[in-house]
Design a protein that fits this description.
The complex is a heterotrimer of chains A (147), B (209) and C (120). Chain A is mostly helical and 147 residues long. Chain A is 72% helix and 0% strand. Chain B contains 9 helices and no strands. In chain B, helix 2 runs antiparallel to helix 3. Chain B is extended. Chain C has 120 residues and is mainly α. Chain C is built from 4 helices and no strands. Chain C is elongated. The chains are: A mainly alpha (147), B mainly alpha (209), C mainly alpha (120). Chains in contact: A-B, A-C, B-C. Chains B and C meet through helix 1, helix 2, helix 3, helix 4 and helix 5 of B and helix 1, helix 2, helix 3 and helix 4 of C.
C-alpha cells in the first residue's frame, strides 16, 4: 500500500528526541556566550549554535510553526539591535572622554572591570547579530520554495 | 615527529576532497563538505586553536551544510558529468608548485623561534599573564593600585584580543554579517517571477560544445 | 631533511589546490561553492599551522596563572574573522544561485553561457 511520506513532525522518534534536545542546545549556546572569557567560545560561536537550534526546530516541526515561534520581524530587528549595541558601547566610551571602543572608562574605579563589562556587552551584541542574521538567511532560503 | 592522528586526519581530508570533486550526487557532496569541516575542526584542536575549531565546527558543519542543502532543494540534484579537461590540472599544478616552492623559506612547523611569535603576540601574552598573576596574588590591593598598565585580565587571550585589543576589526566583522543578511533579504524576499526563457535542452548544449 | 618540518604546509597546499580545481573545473555552481568552502578551510588551516608552537598549549591562562608555553593567539583571532566572512560570502553566493535558477532555469555554467550568448 502506498502512503504519503510521513511528515517529520509525525515521526514520534524525531519529535521526542528534538523536544528533548532543543532546550539544551539553547542552554549550551547561552553557556558558550557568557563563558567565552574563561574558555573557548564567545559571541560568534554562541550565535551560530543558537541559530542551529532554531533551524533544527524549523526542520522538524515545519516552517509555519517555526515562523510563529520565532517571528521574522523580531529577527530583523535583532540584527540591527546587536550591531547598535556594539556601536553603542563605543559611543559611550567617546562620550566619557576616551577613544572609540576604549573600555577602560566604563567603570570609574577599576579599568580592568571596565574591560570586563565592555567585552561582555560587545560579545552580547555580536551574538545577537549572528543569531538573527543566520536565522534570517535560513528564512529566506527555506521560504523560497513554497512561493 | 608527526602524531599518528595528524596523519590519519590529513589522509581523511585528502580523500574527502577528492571524492567531493568527483561526486555527481550533490546531496552526498553537501554532506561530505560538512564532514570535511568537522574533521578540520579536529585538526585545529590538535594545532591548539580551540576557538577556531569551535567556530569551524559550528559554522561549517552546522549552518553552512543547512544552507547548501536548502539551495540544492531549490536547484538541481545532480551534476552533469563533463569530459575531463587538461587545462585546469595544469593551472592548479603550476599554482601548487609555486606555493610549495615558497614554503622552503618558512620556518619548520612548531618552531618556537619563528618570527611570527615575536613582537605583538609575545607582548599580548606577557601583558595578560602578568595581569592574571597579579590578580591572583593581591586581589584587594590591585583595586587601589595607583598606576597600572593597560591589561584586560581575562583567561582567554583570544577573546581579549578579539574584543578589546582588536575590537575595531570585530566591529567590521559584525557589519559584514549584517551586510550578508541584508543582501540575502534583498535577493530572496520578493515574489518569485515567472521565467521568461524556457529551460535549455541538454542535448542541444552538448552538441554545441 | 627539511621536508620533515614542512610536510604540514604541503598537505594543506594540496588541499587548497583540490579546492581550487573544484572551483575552476566543475560546471555546477553549487559544486563551485563547495569547492570554495574547501579552499577557505585549507587557507585557515595554513594560517593556524603557522601559529603552532612545539610543546605549546591552547592560549587560555589556567587558574593560578602558571607559566606555560602558549601557542600564538594572533593567527587564531585573524582566522575567526576569516571564518565569519567566509560564511557570509557563502550565504550570499547561495542566494544568488537560487535567483539564477529562477531566471535561467539551470545552474550549469555551460548552459548559462549558451543562454546568454543566444540572447545577446
Amino acid at each position: 500500500m502506498n502512503k504519503q511520506p510521513m511528515r517529520m513532525r509525525e515521526n514520534i522518534i524525531l519529535r521526542v528526541v528534538s523536544n528533548a534536545f532543543i532546550p539544551f542546545i539553547f542552554l549550551f549556546a547561552l553557556y558558550v556566550q557568557f563563558h567565552g572569557d574563561f574558555g573557548p567560545g564567545g559571541g560568534f560561536q554562541a550565535g551560530v549554535i543558537f541559530a542551529a537550534g532554531i533551524i533544527l526546530y524549523g526542520v522538524i516541526f515545519g516552517q509555519d510553526t517555526m515562523r510563529s515561534a520565532v517571528p521574522e520581524r523580531a529577527m530583523e530587528y535583532g540584527i540591527v539591535l546587536g550591531l547598535m549595541l556594539y556601536g553603542g558601547v563605543g559611543i559611550v566610551s567617546l562620550l566619557s572622554g576616551a577613544n572609540f571602543l576604549d573600555y577602560d572608562v566604563l567603570n570609574a574605579h577599576d579599568p580592568t572591570h571596565g574591560q570586563h563589562l565592555g567585552i561582555l556587552l560587545v560579545e552580547l551584541g555580536v551574538g545577537i547579530t549572528v543569531t538573527c542574521a543566520m536565522t534570517t538567511i535560513f528564512y529566506g532560503l527555506a521560504g523560497r520554495g513554497e512561493q | 615527529m608527526p602524531l599518528p592522528i595528524e596523519i590519519v586526519l590529513f589522509v581523511f581530508l585528502l580523500i574527502l576532497a577528492v571524492v567531493i570533486a568527483t561526486l555527481e550526487d550533490l546531496f552526498a557532496a553537501a554532506m561530505l563538505t560538512g564532514i570535511f569541516s568537522l574533521l578540520s575542526a579536529g585538526l585545529f584542536t590538535i594545532m591548539d586553536a580551540v576557538d577556531v575549531a569551535f567556530t569551524e565546527a559550528a559554522v561549517g558543519a552546522g549552518v553552512a551544510t543547512v544552507f547548501i542543502l536548502c539551495t540544492l532543494s531549490l536547484t538541481a540534484k545532480r551534476e552533469y558529468q563533463q569530459p575531463a579537461k587538461v587545462l585546469p590540472f595544469i593551472a592548479v599544478g603550476i599554482t601548487g608548485a609555486a606555493l610549495i616552492y615558497g614554503t622552503f623559506d618558512m620556518p619548520a612547523y612548531g618552531d618556537p623561534d619563528a618570527v611570527a611569535h615575536r613582537h605583538l603576540s609575545a607582548k599580548f601574552i606577557e601583558i595578560e599573564e602578568r595581569a592574571m598573576l597579579s590578580q591572583n596574588e593581591h586581589a584587594v590591593e590591585s583595586a587601589q593600585h595607583g598606576s597600572k598598565e593597560k591589561a584586560v585580565g581575562l583567561p582567554n587571550i583570544v577573546t581579549s584580543i578579539l574584543a578589546s585589543y582588536r575590537g575595531y576589526d570585530t566591529f567590521g566583522e559584525a557589519t559584514v554579517i549584517f551586510t550578508a543578511a541584508i543582501g540575502v533579504m534583498l535577493l530572496l524576499r520578493g515574489r518569485r517571477r515567472e521565467r521568461k526563457v524556457p529551460p535549455p535542452d541538454r542535448d542541444q548544449v552538448e552538441t554545441m560544445l | 631533511m627539511q621536508w620533515l618540518g614542512l610536510w604540514h604546509y604541503w598537505a594543506v597546499i594540496i588541499l587548497m589546490m583540490i579546492g581550487l580545481y573544484i572551483v575552476i573545473a566543475r560546471g555546477n555552481l553549487v559544486k563551485k561553492v563547495m569547492g570554495l568552502s574547501i579552499f577557505q578551510v585549507s587557507v585557515i588551516m595554513f594560517y593556524v599551522s603557522i601559529g603552532k608552537i612545539e610543546g605549546g598549549t591552547a592560549p587560555i591562562i589556567p587558574e593560578g596563572g602558571y607559566q606555560l608555553v602558549y601557542s600564538n593567539p594572533l593567527p587564531h583571532v585573524l582566522m575567526l574573522t576569516a571564518i565569519v566572512v567566509g560564511i557570509s560570502t557563502t550565504a550570499l553566493a547561495l542566494a544568488l544561485i537560487v535567483r539564477i535558477q529562477e531566471a535561467y532555469g539551470t545552474v550549469e555554467d555551460d548552459e548559462l553561457n549558451k543562454i546568454d550568448g543566444a540572447s545577446s
